[in-house]
Amino acid sequence: MEKKFEELRKRCEDMAALGSAGALLGWDQNTYMPSGGAEARGKTLAVISELAHHQLTCKETGALIADLHDWAQAKGHDSFEGSFLRALKRSYDQEVKIPAELVKELSLATTAAFEAWHKARAASDFAMFAPHLEKVAELNLRKAEALGFKNSPYDALLDLYDAGMAREKLDAIFAELTAGLKPVIKAINERADKVSNAPFKGDFAPETQLKLSLEIAKALGYDLTRGRQDLSAHPFSSGISSPDDARITTRALRDWLPACVYASIHETGHALYEQGFPKEFAFTPLAGAASLGMHESQSRFWENLIGRSRPFAAWALPLYRKHFPGKFDSCTPEDIYRAANRSEASLIRVEADEVTYNLHIALRYEIETQLLDGSLKVKDAPELWNAKMQEYLGVKPAKDSEGILQDVHWGFGMIGYFPSYTVGNLISAQLHAAARKDLPGMDGLIAKGDFAPILAWLRAKVHTQGAKYKPEELLQRAIGEELSVAPFVNYIKTKYSELYGFKA
Amino acid sequence: MEKKFEELRKRCEDMAALGSAGALLGWDQNTYMPSGGAEARGKTLAVISELAHHQLTCKETGALIADLHDWAQAKGHDSFEGSFLRALKRSYDQEVKIPAELVKELSLATTAAFEAWHKARAASDFAMFAPHLEKVAELNLRKAEALGFKNSPYDALLDLYDAGMAREKLDAIFAELTAGLKPVIKAINERADKVSNAPFKGDFAPETQLKLSLEIAKALGYDLTRGRQDLSAHPFSSGISSPDDARITTRALRDWLPACVYASIHETGHALYEQGFPKEFAFTPLAGAASLGMHESQSRFWENLIGRSRPFAAWALPLYRKHFPGKFDSCTPEDIYRAANRSEASLIRVEADEVTYNLHIALRYEIETQLLDGSLKVKDAPELWNAKMQEYLGVKPAKDSEGILQDVHWGFGMIGYFPSYTVGNLISAQLHAAARKDLPGMDGLIAKGDFAPILAWLRAKVHTQGAKYKPEELLQRAIGEELSVAPFVNYIKTKYSELYGFKA
Q: What is the ipTM of this complex?
């Protein structure tokens, strides 16, 4: 069996190498690739992912998994071998279930949908995208049927991104979340001018923004011998070969400093997770996140719970002053804290603040679940979108490009992905509350820029587990809790009632 | 058969995608990769090249090649299908002949040799490297035996880098070359102070050097929508996905402008070749150079034959002035021409000028052929090296780090690679002489920076052929000549006798 395990391990190394090559090809595509290389790059990426798919789903891999499963589980649930087989089998089971023909149809439909989405958004014309969204929904339904599910086809899709997640849970989560947040948003809306973000507006040289954000990332614990920061149109992080090569990108807007600083902190949060996987997990199925939601919890933890806290503002102000002499002379730490936390209902998800963000997700969740179960027709989706924006946030898109056409996800063929953003936000608040208990002097640590104990806490609780456990089990092991809404809503209520001066 | 050809084509696309991924992984390793990623990168690269090797040598590929060979050749020697099969079969035949066991031994020995070479060079202690060089020679001999040869095992190795090349030809080439160049070197040596390179010495900001060299590259015809220039310790070019993504790197020394400018022109020459492959060759075995020698001819053509010509100096001087205001005020175009052509026998190959360069190769050729046929013992190699340096160039290394330990090639396990540098130099002079006949106003074109007709000539004669023909056939088709020494020696004699004022 040991010999068979070595054989399987070698196969996983091959998959990991292909995954690493694919990650680098993607990173380069969004950073340094000359524009003329785009078509060839698309083809190369398709081949690499096809080869990886083949390595995973071929009968040799399947036979080894079947042969080794019981032997590995007998080593113990927490053992390297047991977790290795469990994580691998999960991907294997998912991928073998989808027929090659459907994979191909999805790939072709997605390429067409992505192109149509691009044009539709530019023209702000939903009708151009509608037939593609129909096709995407239809193929995702077939995919769900191929994968299998107990209650709802949507569950099968959710499970791809967040193992164990289900519509039943999410219905309850979004109901509680929406009920908890709507009064807060209303109260803030009535006191809009109580909090100003003026300190962050001005003329900030982009090169200096990059230096500043890199200094912050380093202070948080980002190891630049195993990572780097580059510019890209849309910030992202990429575990090119985690834990030893985990990169981030950011962007910089000359007139709005937080775009760079907070994108950078967000992506650093992702990269810290990847850098925290144990070295011995490298090139195995365990060198990954427990789920997309868990990954997002790490970015949100640093971006919002830490990065928009009062002690963080106190620590960061001298840095802002150092990099932008004169610009922050008349600011107090409290001014910075308030500027980092102005909340305003707006149309665009990626620009939304932590109070309103999850309601953007809630309406996407409602639309995509209804599209999948057939209770909503594609042609009626923009109307529902706009009505929900009005209901949840009190704003209404004037055109579809700033409404239903704003996100690429459906154009990428992904249904069931959006909820992981909200799950991440919820977990980040749960982890934060638990960390505060374990580290009573946390505010003091943050105020002096000593982030190491906080990172060490995340490392111990989350990062070093890699993909050993499903997110639910990981959360239970880490802090003894189930996924819950209350810590997040409490955090928002406490913070914003004080900031805006209302009774929560 | 058409269907089988499509099947084979798909297999070649997979290999090309793996090749492209490997190229990007290598490019990144030498440009942006964080240092901590090195070990994982080595592993990833090994897996990717193993997968590519498997795709090429597996029995399915072999069967398709066997089935299609006659059908494809019947389409005509020059046809796409005929050339495709010929090029693929050449690589296939080479790779299947080497037993997996030997591939593995070579890989292990090379890893060890490379590490030993690094340490030996740092310590300038040949004894540390000697046992590894013995092993490399032994394994290369076994490789040659596996590949098969008519006259000399060295021929089998040569053929890997330069199809059709043989020791018999090279013996004659180096004899003629050495005889032709030695008197020139002697004459220059006696008039060393006749030519000054002082204009290129000074304090040149590296960022500005990069801008200048990129402007030159663009002027030569380098398409930056399908390429880019970055910094690396050792300049290189990489066809990441030719013809649509062909990149170069360069380096910059603050006190010596030509290090950047001429490295950049050299690599641009390589990249222009890759950008010139027909679009329909992409992802096929035809998207490659005819040989390493042919590739080198393109870099040398632009670097030396064009870039160190009198009209080029006249065109470049205003650019130097624009980028470095004040620094070239008192220079004439003739000063620049002379500065770009100071020749001086020196110890280090990569810093050698066009007069002395091939003698560095001649002595490496002598040593590696003798190591392979057993007439030279590894322990006696440094002595022969030093004696030959004295004989050919009149200089003698004080230590092995600036002698036999200077180059990485043997440490990389490569024997038979060096001659392609000289072959490239010879071809560049032949192409140049032919181009001058076809383009009578070539000097005038260069002087006004109109390089397009010269590039178009190379495109038509060489680039658009990709890997359709062996180098000998390509040269014959392009200019109706065999590989020959005379054009190069004549070029050197004419140019340097005038520059240094002696009778050639």
A: 0.93
- Work out the minimum CA distance from B352 to partner chain A, whole angstroms: 33
Interface test with B, best of A44, A48, A223, A248 (most B CBs within 10 A): A44
Contact, B177 vs B362, CB < 8 A?
A: yes
Q: Which residues contact A504 (CB under 8 A, 6 or more apart)?
A: A184, A187, A493, A494, A496, A497
C-alpha separations of B306 from B222, B421, B445 in Å: 15, 18, 11
Give the pTM.
0.95
With beta carbons under 8 A apart, name residues in chain B contacting A228.
Answer: 32, 34
Q: What is the pLDDT of residue A104?
A: 86
- CATH assignment, B204-346+420-468: 1.10.1370.30
Chain A's closest residue to B240, CA to CA, is A37
Helices B153-161 and B126-147 meet at what angle, rounded to 10? 90
A267 is known as an active-site residue:
yes
Q: How many CB pairs under 8 A join A and B?
A: 117
Q: Give the residue from chain A lying closest to B15, CA to CA.
A: A47
Parallel, antiparallel or unpaired: strands B229-231 and A237-241: unpaired
Q: What is the pLDDT of residues B207-250, one digit of tens each?
A: 999 999 999 999 999 999 999 999 998 999 999 999 999 999 99
Q: What is the model's pLDDT at position B504?
A: 82
Collapsing DSSP to helix, strand or coil, B248 comes out as strand
Q: Which two tokens stand for residue B61?
A: 């590929």
Picking from B32, B224, B230, the nearest residue to A228 by CB comes out as: B32
> What pLDDT shows up at residue B104?
86
Strand intervals (E) in B215-351:
229-231, 237-241, 245-250
- Render pLDDT for A86-141 as a digit per residue (tens, 0 to 9): 999 999 999 999 988 898 899 889 989 999 999 999 999 999 999 999 999 999 99
Each domain of chain A, given as residue ranges in start order, spans 98-238+249-504
Task: State the catalytic residue, choosing from A267, A296, A303, A368.
Answer: A267
**Chain A interface disruption, residue of B25, B49, B58, most A CBs within 10 A:** B25
Q: Name the architecture of domain A98-238+249-504.
A: Orthogonal Bundle (1.10)
Beta bridge partners of A256: A201, A253
